[in-house]
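Researcher: Structure prediction, please.
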Amino acid sequence: MKNFGNVASVFGFDDRPFKLLPDPNVIFWSPRHEHAFETLRYGLTSCAPITLLTGEIGAGKTTLLRKLMEETAEDLIIGLVSNVMGTTDQLLHWILNALDVRIESGASYVTLFQTLQDLLIEHYAAGRRVVLIFDEAQNIRSSGLEELRMLTNINSGVDELLQLILIGQPELRDTINLPELRQVKQRVAANYHLTSMGPEETTTYIRHLLRAAGGTGNEIADDAISDIFTATQGTPRLINQLCNFAMVRAATTAENPVSRKTVTDVLGDGMFLPYRLFQQEKTS
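Model: Predicted structure follows.
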């Protein structure tokens, strides 16, 4: 956070309370985040062919994913693929790269597929299970999702050699519900849609992060938090961004707690994109 030293001295923080990058160490376990995490964990431990987690931008999906990866067992081989796009051949390149397999450029689809299949069988023989996690999976074309579904058919007897976890924005769920992807949908054995927080949860969330950073939890006034909720509609990443702006501004005048006026001033200067405009920009 720019000017964090000033913020820390005014509010007495040991660490930044409102981080924009995922931090699994300070997760706020709202009921919906607990349900989302348990869905991920269930999909992983039950060997679900496909586990699906969706939610709006900034709802906390990637943070939960990072937490899940911290807890993975030693017999799991995890491949993380982010922002994948392109043809089915390119999709296999992304997958093999995520599994630390280097392929010569220009390799045919057959070569890519055989390389992946051989790798899965090798790990299976050694008692290891392979899990591929696709973050921002809404970017995968419907043909790519069908290709992923076919990869889950690689098996050894009754044992599946590959699990998929798809994490993305709500449109991913819409895509999977298309009639032509009904076979993909049938392979989804665990799924959850992570919604935004309500007013009370937003207040608890902000207080939680303030205390986790070494504060008292009361560094932002109640009426200011009410306006923060209105502007962000309970989306964690937007809350963090707006709280950052407000605390930096408040620190310049040693204002503690952050007042409603300060939040109003931040909203008025055009630097923060409120939820309604954030949604419009996303769909434009």
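Model: The chain has two domains: 4-15+197-274, 31-194.
Researcher: Thanks, that helps.
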